[in-house]
Amino acid sequence: MIQRKEENILVKISIKIQKQIEELVKQVNEYDYYYYSLDKPKISDQEYDEIFNQLNNLEIKHPQFIDKNSPTQRVSGTALEAFKHITHNNKMLSLSNVFNNNEIIDWCKKNMEEVSSSEILEIVCEPKIDGLAVNLTYNNGEFIQAATRGDGYIGEDITANIRTIRSLPLKIDYKKKISIRGEIYIKKTEFNIINNQRKKDGFDIYMNPRNLAAGTMRQLNPAIVSERKLQLFTYQLINEEDNSQFNNTHHENMMSLNELGFPVNSLIKKVKGEKKVIEYCKNIENIRDSLDYEIDGVVIKFNNLKIQNMLGSRSRSPKWATAYKFKAEQKYTELTAIAITVGRTGTLTPVATLKPIVINGVTVKHATLHNEKYIKINNIDIGDTVAVERSGDVIPKIIGLKKGKRDKRTTFLMPKKCPFCLSFIKKNISTSEAQCININCKERLKKNIIYFVSKECMNIRGLGTQIIEKLIRENIIRNISDLFYLYLQKDKIIFLEKMGEKSVSNLIDEINKSKKLPLNKILTALGIHNVGSEIALLLAEKYTNIDNLTNAKLEELKNIEGIGPIVSNSIFEFFNSAETQELLNKLKSAGLNMHQNMKINSVEQKKTYLYNQNVAITGTMVNWTRSELFELLIKLGAKINKTITKKTTILVVGTDPGKKLTLAENNNIKKLYEKELLDLIK
Ligand SMILES: [Zn+2]
Is 633 in the same domain as 669? Predict the structure, then answer.
């Protein structure tokens, strides 16, 4: 009897604690909403911390009551190995642009005519946040997934990172499956704090808040993301279950988002008529600098969702919306010095050092001066006051000059020797280009390695500028191929870099992973003059392996569509130099994959692409159930593999792919995404 009573008391206490935790979760969520979404804190930071800690302590003591959507659970403990791919249910489009008042008027008129509206239609205007687009999925009232835009069809799964954003509700009062589109950004103040710290710590600084936000979203460790304080604005609501709309208008949808707890920009406004749109754009441009987030224009949308539907979309962008882009901002400052940089091809570029100036909330300290001729023509000199322009990712430019005070002007001259390796430079009189032609120039090597490991090329993470500099200085890296032999000097690197063994191992893993990249990536990374990622892909698909390309005749290269005489000459010269052949041989013996899978082009190839192939499947498909997919694949002549075996040649990849994807990537098995499979059977 007594025991029974004690049990009862225990149950009661435990219910009480559970209730208390639930109540605290509710409170913290509400304070978060006021603080992060509305920017109107309800209580002091100190009071907030107290309540948050109270919740945290209770949860630590009673882990059985932790709700996975508790505000204390935003950061998951483990770092990811890689981002999974996600196929978007609804394509993520980008926006067309208008650049001036006339184009705004034309855009409004043209579309109103198209829907032959007799009355003036409502238009919703909102600031265009200069961040990164994200798709958030909720089901059953819970946040389940976040994906980047990617190519519009397939994005990357960044759920764990996005969970750390405090203004993102993890639970909402709506049960159906919905997608919410928004923009991830970082506040200007936060950007400056982080950059200052990075500079102190000797890291590369970020160019602008968007680059920082992008770099942060690609972090594999959510704990780091959490420290970076990403922010969110939402601007679109999509019903994923059927085509029904929540409301009749976009503006009402935004109000609904707000009620569900999502941050919606407070400057959003409903207007009528082109004049009002222009007025809104002008007003926003005027207050642009006073906002703590970067904007690069105004998004203009038709408010009525039926009208939006009638107007529809082009392949890349909706017709019912457009973006008015601001002109790049210009400011005057003093040019205090001219420095010389040497690029990976050896080109010397004069760079202006400026008295730091804030343009659109970002501090600008350097601007490109292109070459000697540019400086001469524009009569630029040290001590001048210059007009500087900065827009988006582009390096700031000097676009004008207030004459300097001095009567006597010194004329800038390019140095005769490379400032880094001291070898004589070669000058091209007609283009005014100066070049360091020493192939052993360490500055050139550094720039080459930075480019080689960049995301667009071999995507080797963990090799920052500072480490590269040190490895070159210590003669551990003397050419690109040395990267692939770093593992032999692991101990030396740990010692030199004061890096942990784990991070050096991670770096070596990254390098090994990059060996399996297809030929087009390597061709891009080699930095052949005039060959960017597009031409690299063209070449890789035509020649399929490096030997075929090496043996290609000049005439043949010239005749490839999309490659002119200049480009074909650079390609031919590159592959016919002894240096290149030596490098390629070293890369080959290091085990780099120098092949490209065939692209499926012709109808005939499409028909037979899966014929007689051993095909495995991972993830779920949007268009087929598992058994429907089996049926389809068998119809196309494929043999189904339950698991990945030595025989498997193709892996069909859906949403939420499992371990098979990594296995396939490690074994050079071709991947076929759902979208590609759809193309195949079209
Ligand atoms: Zn040099």
Answer: yes
